[in-house]
Write a structure and sequence with these properties.
Blueprint (H helix, E strand, L loop, with lengths): L1 H24 L5 H19 L8 H4 L9
Helix pairs in contact: 1-2
Length: 70
């Protein structure tokens, strides 16, 4: 849990600096900063979609469990 928290804190520190550098590099234009965020979001989405948990469906593993809401 500490590793995840460390990575989130680093991302919170590095992201604004990176966006600021991109805006400065393109003469104050926010367009490239937005495209940077969009492209990183697409990369994260693709990485998320390729994850496999190796676990089956909860209801097929535990058929005796009665759901609280039907």
């Amino acid at each position: 849990m500490g590793v995840v928290n460390l990575e989130m804190q680093l991302a919170g520190f590095i992201a604004p600096l990176t966006i600021g550098f991109v805006i400065d590099a393109f003469d104050g234009s926010f367009n490239e900063a937005v495209w940077l965020l969009v492209s990183l979001g697409v990369v994260c989405f693709i990485a998320f979609m390729t994850l496999k948990s190796g676990k089956g469906n909860f209801m097929t593993e535990h058929p005796q469990t009665i759901p609280a809401v039907k």
